[in-house]
Fold these 4 entries.
Entry 1:
Amino acid sequence: MYVLDTSIVINRPKEVWDLEDPIYITRATLAELEHLSNLGKEEGFIGFQFIEELKKKKRVEIVGPRPTPGQIQFAKKGGEIDNLIREVAKSLDATLVTSDRVQYLVAKAEEIPALLILPEGSLPFEKYFTKNVMSVHLRENSHVQLKEGHPGGWRLKTLDEFMDKEKISYVISQIENYARANNIYFEILREGAKVIQINDYRIVIAYPPFSDAREVTVVRPVKRLTLEDYNLRKELLERINREAEGILIAGSPGSGKTTFANALANYYVSQNKVVKTLEEPRDMDVPPEVSQYRRLEGSYEYTKDILLLVRPDYVFFDEVRRTDDFHTYIDLRMAGIGMVGIVHAKAPIDAIERFINRVELGMIPQIIDTVIFIEGGQIGQVYTLNQVIKVPSGMFERDLARPVVEVRDFFTERLLYEIYKFGEETVVYRIRSQSKLDKELSKIFDDYKLEHRDGRWTVIIPKSELKKLNKKSVKKLLKKYNLHFEIE
């Protein structure tokens, strides 16, 4: 005789079909399945469906008392439902069959015969992940779709295989069963949505009422890169080593931000830096030496307290999205911890603007000193920030001087944006005329620097370029752009 607990009914292992009759299912299990079904959870419906299939080929009997509402409500925390099922097995002198390790261990401790059947080792979506597949997209009443390629260069492939309600329900149940059997918990668990990290796979499950249909999205890194693979220019590597302590890694979704962050984290570890991560969900690929943290008791306030005691050299924050995320990044950086934040942005300046109005303007260069923008898996633009006292571009009166945050291209030192206060408003001013002026200057001079000072453009040239100042084209530029020349 065998008593099946709730985990077995939900997991539906094939070994159940080899068990001899009679098979007992407790009213406690039915009550738990009913509770799950009323909450709209897939496990409840799957369990009832399996019981119906079992009745067609096996002698199934329903036994035992029905639990109280309180026992059902606190089933997971208190284990009351599991206890009722064990009591039924003990009274029948039957073998308890379970997929729950804890249930199995308790039964053995109580000297109740028990059989542990764990779900199959493979995950149902792994068959789709061939060499170049980045992600798998499964949706109810739709064909299976795959993204093949790499960040910035992928294509969507639709397979002939069709996912009906029964198939996708099976996929979802197998993922959840695998997680339970291997003590893997869900990173995000909400009404209608679940996120879980299993090995390299980040799995997002959505179902009604959140989604109009059941769907599963599975993403994995296509390849692992080191910092050497990005062929960083010497000056950028030196900045990462010596100066950059408030870094933003920005880019659009799927551009390769996290891949670069992984490479940077591994590099810091190789330089004997103490590195921690803040992730929700946790999917960075970091060495064993790196602790991956999340919200402690649902709050980053508590996590910050721990991090300040741990004293890491760098904290990688993947991803900075919500208001409390930004405040956490700001607080940790102002406490002197090196921060690397991963931010969704269409352009580098967008990542900076998301910090405006969340902190005093003058503190921004202390919080963010370097922005690395990732495009198509490669480093695109790199911005640096610093604060000066000057007359902002477009203004000409000296008494209008004020603190200005300059945003420059790291490699060329070109001034790209100015951020300053104008009355109560914060202005992000794009230096538009500079690109035209640069083009005209580059036709005349081989070596120069261009800066905006006190309402006019200042061109700094070495003495070797001095003879070119007599050209007519230079005199035209002086008049057109209100230029001033300085000799180094």
Entry 2:
Amino acid sequence: MFNKILIANRGEIAMRIIRTCKEMGVKTVAVYSKADADSLHVRFADEAVCIGPAPSNESYLKMSNIIAAAEITNADAIHPGYGFLSENSKFSKICDEHEIKFIGASAKMIDQMGDKASAKATMKAAGVPTIPGSEGLLESLIEAKEIAEKFSYPVMLKATAGGGGKGMRAVWKEDEIEKAWESARQEAKAAFGNDGMYMEKLIEEPRHIEIQIIGDSTGKACHLSERDCSIQRRHQKLTEETPSPFMTDSLRKKMGDAAVKAAEYIKYEGAGTIEFLVDKHRNFYFMEMNTRIQVEHPITEQVIDFDLICEQIKVAAGEKISGKNYLPKLHSIECRINAEDPENDFRPSPGLISNLHLPGGHGVRIDTHVYSGYVIPPHYDSMIAKLITTAQTREAAISKMKRALEEFIVEGIKTTIPFHLKLMSDKAYLSGKYTTKFMETFSMEN
């Protein structure tokens, strides 16, 4: 087991990792930008090192500063959390070269699965269902038009290096494709420095359902059931739940088996998710793989009583997994509480939290790094907390979430709490019959 782990992240995920490390008897090092000097992860780690000014590219994305912090504190492993450098193959390789264990995927694995076009080809070879589309990157607009005609509209143009919905365009008819092609490539080039595009058949009435997997160094993998992440805004998840209200025992087995097959085919080591689109007929298709821990991992932990961060660290230290698959015993929902104004197109709302009251009670979990008097900096992701409720049934978990949201008081800034309260009373959400298009018709005014 490691003696000391440096956490190359901030906010609630840094706190989450610190907690598990303490329970495992592993020392921790926090890194922080000048804007995060008063964050809780700095206070609760055993050591803390300032790695630069507020901008991410001068601190949390500055690999040389993070490696230097690990070396001066004698950390023998780095946990990247999610976001920032968690899926950066160069950083994984640099850690390896400095004989510091990267608690995540290898550089080769990140490259293999991070590029969406090559990931799709790999999954196809593994026998995992994939969305019909181009075999590789599109060479030209002419080829894009030919493939769109072959599979028939609607189709989806996607940036091969994409993420967070950038470089994606739905194309419903032929006269829209040229404009979509140009704008998607420009956006991808600006965001990722790579304007490579591929095309897929657009899945109508889709649900976004992911399977959590863990693999060890022997090539063995297991799954920890599904999470439904279909409630999204601009391809950013707002709330997640497990089990999915759309899931059947038969579909869970098929998707779980496919996810394990995918992980074992590439000999995946660590925690990851295989993300699928599921159509209204319950046909499922591989979408992408995330080679890191997910924001929404707590709901999986709650329904199977399992510490995913602990397992991640153990696997990185060379321990083997049990190999058994896990099924949900309870129902759990996560609401992402962001410093945003849902009444004003979710505009960011950084600033001073003048008063804070966190909900509690049986079946209520909060992962957060904020407190009364904390100033939310404007430089990073706007999520300030994750509120998770767990109960015997979906209905009970929703009732518990409503009660917890009503108890959750944040003054001084705007948050998404009013949105989540409205969501928990929405008929379409309550029915469980929602898709990734849910937010297109949802209104705070209804």
Entry 3:
Amino acid sequence: MDKSADRQYTEFKLKNRTKVNRYLNVVMWFFVITGPAIALGVLGGVFHNVSYLTCFYISAMMAVLSAIHLVLVKKIPTSTATSIFALTALNVLLVYMACVHVSLHLTWFLVPLLSLLFCDRFIFFYAVGVNYVLMVLTTWVTAPFYAMTRTDYTEPAAYFTDVISGLTIETLIMCVSGFIVLRLAVEYYSELLRQNATINEQQRSMKEKMDILDSMAEIYDNVNLIDFVENTEMSLREPEQVKHGIDMDKQTHTLMNQRIKNRVMSDQLDAFLTFTNITTVRERLTGKKVISADFIDVVSGWFRAQYITAEASSHGVPNMVIYTTRNVDEEKRREEHLVRISMTDELTRLFNRRCYEEDLTQYRSGPLGDDFVLLSVDVNGLKKVNDTKGHAAGDELIKGAADCLALSVGNGGKVYRTGGDEFIAVLRTEDPEGIRSLIAERSAQWHGIYTDEIALSVGFASRRDHPDATVDDLERMADADMYAEKEKYYREKGIDRRR
């Protein structure tokens, strides 16, 4: 036995010893009435060689021994001494009855047999040893009496040798048989205790898991326990937790997902059915703790579906899986908001340079199309406004430029603020010159609080005009065109930029 099983067996043996000691005490008190019973036999002429005084001695002796044993049972019920006292007391009774020639023959092997109840090797061998010694002494003491009553024995020694030889053989047989029975009993009870410990551990583990599942049921909108060994599913959110069978040959989705799919956004339904296909879950989850995917509920918004491994084989194949769904609409909105902030210029609310660089990466790897146009825009005179009217006026000018660009481009593309007074617009249009004219018209109509006018230099490059150009080539061409427009503006205004 391992240490845990040995400890459990020791605990069992102590509890068992207490119980057997109590029963033996009852047996000892029962033997108190042996004296009156024998007295009735004396009165009836059954026992010829027994006196009433002997009957009294038997009852008195057993009463005293039973009382002492009762005290021991109350004080030290698990002690080996308490058990040995009871067995020795019964041996004393047997010896006394044999010595006073009471012809009520109790087997000498009664005490060793009773000692087996303790499931203790020391107590058993003690009982066998003491019993044999007392049996030999008693047979020697009573041999003269019984030899005289028998015609087949002329000498007490012959009687003693004959009887003790048979009793010795019986003792050996009883000792070996008793030891085998005791060993089997110890192994049997030890195995029972091991199994009981395993069952208790499994129950404890299952209770812990169920407690965790119950707590999870409070967090998630749906919690489904799927057992791939028994092929069952059980919802933990239902008032009555009932297991439903899963036919893995015909059924591709659990009952829960069959209900949930009715509320999934139509363009996501195929992806949802693929993710929740019960026939592929084990394979996809093998060696993993969790797999998850996000979908949109047409009523409540985004939700997250997860398969979590609750119990797996030694090869990592999940045998028991928890399927959950949880509303993450607020989380998604928060993510979208953070993404929007990270991709948006704080002053103008246009897309920022980071967003432009990421979009540019996609444009580099994909076809541009003939209607692809890139605008490069710069605010004229921003430095002068900042120097003469302050940065509030300069910020107003930048926001005015952003508004003119955004309104002019509209849904036809995206506008980015890529620097202090620099903007880029990526759009799809057949008439880029018309967009530049529209920007000029809106700029002419703009009026601010600090500044009355705004002037924008706009350059563009289109894929139609440059079919072999890359997006980087178009960006450089648009910048060159913008700087040409800027030079033209300053020349027409008679402004010497070098000053």
Entry 4:
Amino acid sequence: MKHPKGLYVLFATEFWERFSYYGMRAIFILYMTKMLFNGDKALSSNIYGSYTGLVYLTPLIGGYVADRYWGNRKSIFVGGIMMAIGQFFMFLSASSVANNSLAVSLMWGGLAFLIFGNGFFKPNISTMVGQLYEDTDSRKDAAYTIFYMGINAGAFLSPLVCGYLGEKVDFKWGFLAAGIGMIIALIIFYFTKDKYVISPSGEQLGVLPNKVRDNDAGSNNEGGSFSTQQLGILFGGIAVMFSLIYFYFGVDLWGSLIYSMTVVAPFVIITDKTLSKVEKERLWVIITLMIFVVFFWMCFEQAGASLTFFAEEQTNRNILGWVMPASYFQSFNAGFIILLAPILTMFWAWLNKKGMEPASPRKMSIGLAFLAAGFLFISMGAKSIPAGGASIIFLTGLYFLHTIGELWLSPIGLSMVNKLTPARFTSLMMGVWFLAIATGNKLAGLFSSLYPDAKTNYYPTLLGIQISDLYTYFIVFVCFSGVAALIVFLLSKKLENMMNGIR
């Protein structure tokens, strides 16, 4: 009752779009290993990482188009249509597994539509949440947390529906259900946006490009368009970084593209000549925190890859005679978010009234600490796995701790980007923020490919250290996330000062 009705329109739209995305993701790696690639975990993990990485790379394109040409609404609708087409391609792929080459080709087509569709959809609907409020409205963090509940309500339901259909009936029906979810999202948004998705002054949001909204004193509405210098930095920088990463470090094509764009794109925006000193300082806060967000998602996104392998092969899923599908574990995180998000929202409101609410960088360091705690917990279960499989308690505990960490970091990051970025760059900067998530997802696939497998005697090495068992494997993630948490905590005071009064 305390928030604009438009928030709940965006909540419902995102609910069904995330139902579609996470429904497909819940069965994607199982579909590849079981139906397409003859149990090859490393190949499937790398494809999974490339897909989930590119899904968060294309928002840079979608954000730029929305800021300069289309506006948020058109971008969301076009992106939604493309994602629906992509899911139906996946349905056709799973319907053609008797012809392996055709099934793989259809899968590539489906992934392409999903990747580009998400690029237009995701940064723009996230941006519109912030536009429902005045710039100084203290409800923004709470609004993004409520919006995040919409994301995770869809993510909770989809593995139960799509996971059951995919694992217990046929993978094609799981993909079809995901496509239907995307169609429902489009219908909700199309028929409710004009009445409810409006600004505090009553104007319809997202109709015009975002640069037109930027009428703050001293700002230049011509900003947001790349100058010749910026285009030179963008294309030249990407070419140099891509060549270095691809040829010298031997990273695959998609990884080289994702990593090079993540490094170069933030500096293209920060060199915009229309930015004031305060605006630049605020953008540097976002860019700095992006580095550590990479580590968060690299570890967190093991949920769809190595943790799915652990659930299927090393976890006792027998509950009173019923064997729970491995994909159901991916609902745990979303279910915990639905339960915990309202509690954290009220907690932050209480802290705000007391003048004790921590600023965004401090919240994000706490999120990383909970991530480390989750992997430490599951490493205890992986140290000595019984013949019947590890207790379900270990994966449940990991997802509980990771959920708390996610709520301290992810919606806060979205809110921070919206609060700190000049309006003419909002969707574009949201796209840059998603680049950090893209890199994290790609690295998640890379690290999942290091998952040790006693059945095939596959024990890879990392930095010269052999990953000889699952305990060692999970401790690697404890180290990455724990060190990142400590560094962000130590930097938080400096970053808060650079935010210039915005918390």
